[in-house]
Design brief:
The protein is of the alpha+beta class and 301 residues long. 20% of the residues lie in helices and 38% in strands. The protein has one domain: Roll (2,3-Dihydroxybiphenyl 1,2-Dioxygenase, domain 1), CATH 3.10.180.10. An eight-stranded mixed beta sheet has the order 2-3-4-1-5-8-7-6, with helices on one face.
């Protein structure tokens, strides 16, 4: 199965973690996910940008072949100048034009935190906020075309918007990226992009058939991200984007996180289709580790 080579506009395509001590984060994630790193910043640069590479064999709802593949999965970066020293995972969404995306964000009521700029010859990027304040990045690809391995253990599995204002989010992200919502059993909603399943199936032939056999609802192939409602029991939690990495085993990921100096925020638990845990690295960046578990498809149903 070939590695992913590029993304259609409107699809999350990359993640990186801004860390006060990026070299310490490299040690943590290398130990947790088996990532290998290279710093792509030139000699003498003030900051670092460590791109993580992983070789894996996939067993997921996207690909059950178990064939080996390798490629870039994520990155660790220094904190931007002047930013608060708070570690965080950042979500990047693919666009045709960073400058046009900035105009669309403004028109839809969002904010431009960092104006579009070129990241060497890799691509053009910017940082925005939605009307509720959730920050996200966009990526206009040049030489760097996004994550090459996704959904396999040790790679990006999902990005999720955590929000209190779902209706407002529908209006904003629908206007900027063309997203619609996709209803799941149990009242859950996810973000979907019409035609995305056709793109994914070019990388994973027979995707729709295999998902139907596994019990996935029709149309799930167009899902691009999750919607997570922030409950009234979390009054201090701001709207934000989060990341989920696929894991060989959620329980092992939690134990390894503790051993490496991180924190288990939510111990491993069973959820529809997965067993998952919510973790924080030693510098405080939070993320989810999730194992695809078909026998859990009716959990909570």
């Amino acid at each position: 199965m070939p590695e992913r080579d590029g993304y259609v506009p409107g699809v999350p395509c990359w993640v990186d973690a801004s860390e006060p001590d990026p070299r310490a984060a490299v040690d943590f994630y290398g130990g947790l996910f088996g990532w290998e790193f290279r710093d792509v910043m030139p000699a003498g640069a003030e900051g670092s940008y460590f791109i993580a590479w992983r070789e894996t064999r996939g067993w997921s709802l996207f690909d059950m072949s178990g064939e080996p593949r390798s490629g870039n999965v994520a990155a660790i970066t220094s904190m931007p100048e002047g930013a608060l020293p708070r570690a965080v995972w950042n979500t990047y969404i693919s666009v045709d034009s960073a400058d046009e995306a900035a105009a669309e964000v403004r028109e839809a009521g969002g904010g431009v935190v960092v104006e579009p700029f070129d990241f060497a010859d890799a691509g053009r990027t910017a940082v925005f906020t939605d009307p509720e304040g959730a920050a996200f990045c966009i990526w206009e690809a040049k030489k760097h075309r996004g994550a090459q391995v996704v959904n396999d253990p040790g790679s990006l599995n999902f990005n999720g918007l955590n929000t209190r204002d779902v209706e407002g989010a529908k209006a904003f992200y629908g206007s900027v990226f063309g997203w619609r919502t996709f209803a799941m059993d149990g009242g859950l909603e996810m973000w979907a992009l019409d035609g995305y399943g056709d793109f994914v199936e070019r990388h994973h032939p027979d995707l729709r058939r295999r998902w139907a056999e596994a019990g996935a609802p029709p149309g799930f192939e167009d899902v691009v991200a999750t919607i997570n409602r922030i409950g009234d029991d979390q009054p201090d939690t701001p709207a934000h984007w989060s990341v989920t990495f696929a894991a060989d085993d959620a329980d092992t990921a939690a134990a390894t996180t503790t051993r490496l100096g991180g924190t288990v925020l939510v111990p491993p638990f069973d959820a529809p289709w997965v067993r998952m845990t919510i973790l924080a690295d030693p510098q405080g960046a939070t993320f989810t580790a999730s194992r695809f578990t078909p026998e859990n498809k009716d959990v909570g149903g």
